Fold this sequence. Notes:
Oligomer: heterodimer
Mean pLDDT of chain A: 93
Largest sheet of chain A: 6 strands, mixed
Radius of gyration of chain B: 13 Å
Helix content of chain A: under 10%
Largest sheet of chain B: 7 strands, mixed
Structural class of chain A: mainly beta
Number of helices of chain B: 0
Number of strands of chain A: 11
Structural class of chain B: mainly beta
Shape of chain A: globular
Distance between the termini of chain A: 39 Å
Amino acid sequence: QQQVKQSPQSLIVQKGGISIINCAYENTAFDYFPWYQQFPGKGPALLIAIRPDVSEKKEGRFTISFNKSAKQFSLHIMDSQPGDSATYFCAASYSGAGSYQLTFGKGTKLSVIP
Amino acid sequence: DTAVSQTPKYLVTQMGNDKSIKCEQNLGHDTMYWYKQDSKKFLKIMFSYNNKELIINETVPNRFSPKSPDKAHLNLHINSLELGDSAVYFCASSQGAISYGYTFGSGTRLTVV
């Protein structure tokens, strides 16, 4: 199973600041890169996803930046709010027919302080 | 109306016991999964079923046995529970290839004492 390396392990950001979480992958066949958000006591929920044919995808305050040559992608949370405090997971997979497995990073615990 | 529901939410049991966790999805998805989340929050896939057929079976002790009676259900039975089995177990589902994302259940926290 190919690894997806995620950093930092934990992150503290002041309200209104920018939160940045980074991931790197090894398998060049990966072509689907989602981010999941998990609140305590809940299951992970799909937040935003990107494919390598674009370098950036934005949804509201959440942006994925993708660097195919470096095999890296990152999540930016603009104007971070206390309600964004959660654990964030990056993941990667090959999205072709017969592909069913997401490989997750180890997660980043984000705390947004007022 | 919960999309992926797991029961029970909490399970405390003694070493050596046998227990089951049930999962049901009402999304019409054809693929279901079991993931284990350890104390460090790491998510690791255990099993995946597509149209009731086992397609992923990671290195998991034989004490763990999944069963899919139909496309909407995937249950996990664990025999001879050990302390190291303590974790949160998540069921998830997707439609076809995973490019449309997983939908996770809210998890079952298993504590073996």
